[in-house]
Specification:
This protein is mainly alpha-helical. It has two domains: 55 residues; 74 residues, no CATH class. The chain contains seven helices and two strands; from the N terminus they run H-H-H-H-H-H-H-E-E. The longest helix has 25 residues. The chain is extended, with a radius of gyration of 26 Å.
Length: 171
């Protein structure tokens, strides 16, 4: 399936979809039947789309922007009447437009984070320095992974081997 967006002809796309359909895996027939709809094919392969190939290839391959916009619009209120939704949508569009307008006129970003070229190069240097220090430090240390049940993220704990007693064990 991952090859389909990169194929150059409609026949190649259809041949791959038919191979997927004909394999013995459960559910593949229904999956391919869904994908053989013209509007779905135009979304997964540029050869079925009427969109210019250059524009199609520059569009994002995920829905992050759409999901973000959906979350931003729906943060105000839910369960509104039709008219109230239209008014809220208009107000949201106005806020977004004003934010963009301010940025374009005065070059003031909508976030407080400094994204200038100088700030990026300073951050890059800091990361490189951390990597250099980290590689020197790891020669005398061992890493231990443990599960943090509060936020379900793996954290890395650095233990200095020189400080360990001979009776302690590293997991």
């Amino acid at each position: 399936m991952y090859i389909v967006p990169n194929l150059n002809t409609q026949n190649e796309v259809l041949k791959i979809l038919h191979k997927i359909r004909d394999c013995d895996k459960p559910g593949t027939t229904a999956w391919v039947k869904d994908k053989l709809t013209l509007w779905v094919l135009s979304g997964i392969s540029s050869v079925f789309s009427k969109m210019d190939h250059v524009i199609w290839s520059q569009t994002p391959n995920n829905t992050n922007a759409g999901e973000s916009a959906h979350a931003n619009v729906n943060r105000d209120e839910r369960n509104l009447s039709f008219i109230a939704r239209i008014v809220r949508g208009r107000d949201f569009d106005k806020r977004q437009w004003e934010s963009t307008d301010v940025y374009e006129k005065y070059n003031v970003p909508d976030t407080y984070r400094n994204k200038s070229e100088l700030a990026q190069s300073i951050q890059s240097e800091k990361r490189a320095e951390k990597r250099r220090k980290g590689s020197k430090q790891l020669s005398n240390t061992a890493k231990k992974r443990k599960n943090n049940c509060h936020n379900k993220e793996n954290i890395t704990e650095i233990i200095d081997l020189d400080d360990l007693d001979k009776n302690q064990h590293i997991e």
